[in-house]
Amino acid sequence: MDIVQQLKKIDLFHGVSSEKLQILAAQAIYKKYPAQEMVIGETDPIKAFYVVLTGRMKLYKSSPEGKEQTIQLLEPGDPFGLCTAFATDAFPASAMTIEESSVVLIPGALMETVAMQEPKLLLNIIQILSRRLKDSMALIESLALKEIPGRLASFLLHSLAQTKENPEQLELAITQRELAKILGSTPEALSRALRKLADDGILQTSGRTIRILNRRALDDLAEGT
Q: The whole model's pTM is what?
């Protein structure tokens, strides 16, 4: 695999010089994982930086009782492990594949050295961290202040905003069980919320396809009105 060419396709490395990409690629490690495979365990002593190349993954936290809260879904091009690369030695969450996936791993010390020499890379990192902080604050607000239907509406609106094709239709890349973990719900409660929104004429579901029928009502539900 030509790792340099792979890095060039990733937003994080846009504008970074070919020389610096060559330095990163020289020590990068390519790894492939099957579906439902743990990539990093919470508290693992890892000082490295990861980028998803193919497949889908999730970052999540687990309670001692086994309850799981998905924090973020990771798509191709998404980096993770920034905190262990630059700040801490232990990973604050677990990372697991949802489907067969591949990642590239770059040693944290190398990333830090190159970032100090490449202002564009530092700016890209700051932008990514800023977006994730915003998403994390939205997740905290949703879990703390909204009931399941409101959380679902917020998730759908956020996902639709990322869709470049049909703005009124969403193809879920995850199962309803995984979606329930994102919403801090149970699969049963999520199913009831979907049925309620369908009965109210707000949306229509078919497998993993969700079609929005009443965007204003969905907006109102997400805002708690």
A: 0.76
